[in-house]
Design goal:
It holds the Pfam family Methyltransf_33. By secondary structure, this protein is α/β, with parallel strands linked by helices. It has ten helices and twelve strands. β1, α4 and β2 form a beta-alpha-beta unit. The relative contact order is 0.17.
Length: about 300
């Protein structure tokens, strides 16, 4: 990560009237390890729901895709541990695939390749490290039909119209007849959602506070972690789950020669995780230029893998 960009973004966020820090900076090595802990939490239902759909409904999803040969392009692919379930089913159904995992981390793509090799042997894999907004353009001239995967409810991290802009960006990359499969966390009992971002063991709190610790480590900050509390809230009216760090006292923090003042109980907004209804997803499909969509949900109706066709 470019520390200069990190510093500029931190300075900009902490100078705003409503202080904020970008959630993309959660995932340094320590943050990534803590997030793996979150993924195992009983309260954090998302991975289990997505895995259930992949295990039980990959065949049905793939039957909607008429191509015998295609590129499967995964944005933010991570370690690929869930995706291999889908890829394996596609191969069993006789589809000839090339898997193109894309991730900001070259290290995690090496793990991804190992997972694929162990499960799927000689499946062609073309890993692409970097910002997928940039690297995806390198695939423009590939001739095969395309299925773009965007799993893990990552669409929820885009605020407001930015989610529409992102899906339009995908639509523009696709050719007519191509497909887009997106993992989406659905609106549900607000208590279930709130608990996912406020676990009893405090793992989510550690995850958020690590962002301040990272500023201390990498930018020479002097945040006192004990002087901040984590607070997660869900608004069922607009479907937004929001995370904040709350200053527990009137204090000044210094980062690389700059001073930032916090009033007692002032907040830093750290993350949004947007939830959608199936009706809203249908509307998004139309709004972003897709001609067709279908939703595959888990047994509780908590989560959807939504398939869009251009």
């Amino acid at each position: 990560m470019d520390n200069n960009n990190f510093k500029l973004d931190v300075f900009q966020g902490l100078s705003a009237e409503q202080k904020y820090l970008s959630s993309k900076y959660f995932y340094d090595d320590k943050g990534s390890r803590i997030f793996q802990e979150i993924m195992q939490l009983e309260e954090y239902y998302l991975p289990e729901c997505e895995t259930e759909i992949l295990v039980q409904q990959s065949g049905e999803i793939l039957r909607q895709i008429p191509f015998d040969e295609l590129d499967v392009i995964e944005l933010g692919a991570g370690d690929g541990s869930k995706t291999v379930v889908f890829l394996e089913k596609a191969i069993q159904m006789g589809k000839r695939l090339t898997y193109v995992p894309m991730d900001i981390s070259g290290d995690i793509l090496e793990v991804n390749q190992q997972h694929v090799k162990e499960r799927l042997g000689d499946l062609p894999v073309v890993p692409m490290a970097g910002d997928y907004f940039v690297t995806i353009k390198e695939l423009k001239n590939r001739e095969k039909p395309r299925l773009v995967l965007f799993m893990g409810s990552n669409i929820g991290n885009f605020q407001g119209e930015k989610s529409i802009e992102f899906i339009r960006f995908i639509n523009e990359f696709l050719k007519p007849g191509d497909f887009f499969l997106m993992g989406v966390d659905l609106k549900k009992n607000p208590h279930v959602i709130r608990a996912a971002y406020n676990d009893e063991g405090g793992v989510t709190k550690r995850f958020n506070l690590n962002l301040l610790e990272r500023i201390n480590r990498e930018l020479g900050g002097d945040f006192e972690l004990e002087a901040f509390e984590h607070y997660g809230v869900y608004n069922p009216l607009d479907g937004a789950a929001l995370s904040f760090l709350v200053s527990l006292e009137d204090q000044d923090v210094h980062i690389d020669g700059q001073q930032f003042h916090f009033e007692k109980y002032e907040t830093i907004h750290t993350e949004i995780s947007q939830k959608y209804s199936l009706k809203e997803l249908d509307q998004m499909a139309v709004k972003t230029g897709f001609s067709w969509d279908r939703h595959f949900t888990d047994s509780k109706g908590y989560y959807s893998l939504s398939l869009f066709r251009k």
